[in-house]
Amino acid sequence: MLFIENYDPEVVHLKESFQTLEIGCKELRTRRLFLKLLEAILKAGNRGNTQGFNLSALLKLSDIKSTDGNAALLHFVVEQVAQSEGRGFVINQNRSFGRNSTRSKKPN
């Protein structure tokens, strides 16, 4: 009886969740910076002539830390790709992504 009462609201909730995921996936597929990031990760770890990688590998990139333990390899790659694309993106102290209002570039 409880199942029947909750069925319609659950279906509506699931449809909304799938729609949100679909919109998010479409947004990622059309973002040039995200595509460049995936390309850089593929090139960095490519041994042979691999055409792609499993996205779960991105989780491993966040596990690889710098020697001081403050930054992950994923953050470094994102920052490098953003800089090479001429974007004013930086990673702040909280490791969230944001736009650098000064648009200054760090010296190499």
Automatic annotation (TrEMBL):
One of its GO terms (biological process) is actin nucleation. Transmembrane segments: none annotated. GO terms for molecular function: actin filament binding. Signal peptide: none annotated. Residues 1-108 form the FH2 domain. Belongs to the formin-like family. Class-I subfamily. This is FH2 domain-containing protein. It comes from Malus domestica.
